[in-house]
Write a structure and sequence with these properties.
Elements (H helix, E strand, L loop, with lengths): L2 H30 L3 H30 L4
């Protein structure tokens, strides 16, 4: 197994797990009785929170290096 084979195998497994998890949560939300819009709004909020944390860490590192005041 070459490095490229291993990389493609691990990437497909990783994204497959994410797809499986999102599909299960989508079906759980449907079982509760909410529509698909609730799933997408929840996903959007989670992505926004991840982005906010990433930007906060980026600002901290930039301040430590003296790039911004």
């Amino acid at each position: 197994m070459t490095l490229l084979d291993w990389y493609s195998y691990s990437a497909s497994g990783f994204f497959g797990k994410i797809g499986s998890l999102s599909e299960r949560s989508f079906h759980l939300i449907q079982r509760i009785g909410a529509g698909p819009n609730v799933f997408y709004i929840t996903l959007l909020c989670v992505l926004f929170l991840v982005w906010m944390v990433a930007m906060r860490n980026y600002d901290r590192k930039a301040k430590d290096k003296g790039l911004i005041d």
